[in-house]
Design brief:
five-stranded mixed beta barrel, alpha+beta, five-stranded antiparallel sheet, about 300 residues, about 25% helix, about 30% strand
Length: about 300
């Protein structure tokens, strides 16, 4: 058997650059008729493990984000007079906010969550344990068993309040029951993937400044499906004012008033057909250019 690069080997390398290094290649000549055969074999599992470890080490080498790091704002968060497709990721009954995830960003979200879980579940990440929790710190921890990017909103002696920036979920946790790990630059290039929204001209009925359990349950049922058309009317106090329409063009703003869940501050109730959907993926690219380059290397983790 002799080892060299046949035309077949070269073509495979060109077609499958991310996996070709996981195989050994050889050619073998038939002693009877002189025919040359290409032979492909999978490398030993240890070789693949070593390659994966190198990728994890590259991610580690990207470094921990600075203490004063702040997540980038989602490009859609300041949209005005534009419409995009999105899913509802969470409804915060305390501040009566609806968090939306643009459909255009769902691919990034899936890839991010997969990479976070793979990297931070590996022993290599144990040296990134956060020793001192501080308000405003961007870090990583588990929420419902899966690693997510978070920020420490409030820090108390035995408890802290965290925000899962890609879900829009705020959670109070016991400090001694949660394992916080430092956020690496590799995972910091994406902006927050959840956008805080308020329904335009709508004030939800509330009890002690919170949505009532009945209102919360009914609103959650209305927002279960998706995607929805989100019609933006600019940002006020960090919230994107919106009208939300389902695919049948029924307006959520109108429905919550009709069901007695909220009041409308608008003088006129107007059913509006959403305008043409726009995309801001071109703006997202500036945040993910470096992220995608490293992703190409880490796609075999």
């Amino acid at each position: 058997t002799k080892f060299n690069k046949s035309l077949f080997h070269i073509l495979i390398e060109l077609a499958l650059p991310n996996v070709s290094n996981d195989f050994v290649w050889s050619t073998q000549q038939d002693q009877q008729n002189g025919t040359i055969h290409d032979i492909i074999g999978l490398k030993f599992e240890n070789d693949i493990d070593q390659r994966q470890l190198r990728i994890l080490e590259e991610i580690t080498a990207s470094g921990i984000v600075p203490v004063d790091f702040r997540y980038y704002e989602n490009p859609f968060a300041t949209a005005n007079n534009e419409t995009f497709l999105a899913f509802v990721s969470n409804i915060d009954k305390n501040d009566r906010t609806i968090y939306m995830q643009p459909e255009d960003h769902m691919e990034y979200m899936q890839k991010l969550i997969e990479e976070l879980d793979i990297y931070y579940s590996h022993p290599i990440s144990e040296k990134l344990t956060v020793d001192n929790i501080s308000t405003g710190l961007a870090c990583v921890t588990k929420y419902e068993g899966i690693y997510h990017r978070v920020v420490i909103k409030e820090n108390h002696i035995s408890t802290c309040i965290i925000i899962c920036v890609d879900l829009g979920i705020t959670e109070k946790v016991q400090v001694d029951e949660v394992h916080f790990k430092h956020l690496l630059n590799h995972f910091a290039s994406l902006p927050c993937l959840a956008i805080p929204c308020r329904l335009l001209d709508i004030e939800f009925k509330h009890i002690d400044y919170q949505m009532s359990p009945e209102t919360y349950k009914e609103l959650s049922n209305l927002c279960q499906s998706g995607p929805f058309f989100v019609e933006s009317y600019g940002q006020v106090n960090g919230m994107l004012n919106v009208k939300i329409f389902d695919l049948d063009r029924l307006c959520l703003n109108d429905i919550v008033v009709q069901k007695g869940l909220a009041f409308s501050s608008s003088l006129q109730s107007q059913m509006t057909i959403p305008p043409t959907i726009v995309t801001k993926n071109y703006k997202l690219q500036r945040y993910v250019k470096r992220h995608k380059e490293i992703n190409e290397k880490s796609s075999v983790i």
